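Recall that a protein's primary structure is simply its ordered list of amino acids. Everything else, from secondary elements to tertiary packing, is in principle encoded there. The following example makes that idea concrete.
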Amino acid sequence: MRVAASLITLNALTHGAGMGDWKQKADDRIERHRKGDFVVRIGAEPAGTAVSARLVRHHFRFGMCIGGDPASAGPDQQRYFRFIAENFNTLVCENDMKWYATERQRGQVNYDRADALMAFAEKHEMAMRGHCLFWSKPKFVQPWVQELDDAALRVHVESRLESVVKRYKGRLIAWDVNNEMLDGSFFKDRLGDDIRAWMFRRARELDPHVPLHVNEYGILGSDEKTGQYIDLIRSLQDRGAVGGIGVQEHAAERFVPVRGPATAEAFDERKGGDVLVPDEVWGRLDRLAELRLPIHLTEISSKTPDPLRRADTLEMLFRVGFAHPSVEAILLWGFWEKRHWLGPEAALVDAQWNLLPAGQRVLDLMHREWTTHAQARTDARGTIRFRGFFGRYELELTRPDGTKRRAVVELRPGALEADAVLNP
């Protein structure tokens, strides 16, 4: 009965006046921040050449966590990796770059699985986030690390940075440096307060170009914790650290369009947090954006036995995030029923590889609603103009004499004019 009641509650909210208000606001922001009026020059093409411009890869980073062995011959494994490669442009290792995965036993460092996933990303021209150099919560620190004395711990922290940052230097779009510092303090307690900023400074020395992120949960639903996060980031900035902000949200089922008396029942499966209301979430993202750092929504899940509500709430999170100009990435933390860390009630795809409503909704947003397929004709200078989402476009050219050619062009924020590259 609880599931049915929550479905009625959420659907009533979703399709009422509140839904239209927030959704229209999100769509207006998406139109303003995620699209541009493009001018594309196509060499010496004759005037009147018909051009079909199709977005093939978003500039925005829509991502997924990943694990396992890409070389596995198992049919489920192959479908798992194929689904990711076909639908996302950004990856993050769910576990395989974490210290407890690469050095389970002291001195036995193994990057085989992380290397394989990095190679998979590069093969498919997908960006990779590094996650994570360290984890502040003691329960995620290997027993052998906890048993070290302070001097030895400092040596091994340095060794960890030297090893992993150098290994993936120039290949990542971000590193989460010291995960969840607001709720964990293992390294700070053992090595002093400055160890946190030192981790960032040392990582930057080892790879000067990779953005170094903080990464925390409980932010989108709490003004208080948002304030604590801002204080933490500013304290690190004052000591020469931090290049980006990571925001987790593993309880996105708490999203409701408006705050009201019916909202409490709309997220009763998981206690411990307030509802997530789009206008309030935008306000917290605005506060973070004042720090002038890129924001990644790094770990996203929605867990509920109600499959339609799971779809509704993930749609709300995606629209809210995509609509905010400081958000550069949204990464889901799992999709397949047999592999999701929160179990089947958080899945986008069932055990037999059928899309669930949440999976269909997310794919429709990324690949149908937020896409561009424009038609234009070249002017006398071989130029076309059209409006579309930022990203990589494939162009199909049909000249007045009927001959065809293909070209590609990258169209990014701040670079609305570009030269297409004709295929040989």
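The domain at 2-36+62-369 is CATH 3.20.20.80 (TIM Barrel). The mean pLDDT is 93.
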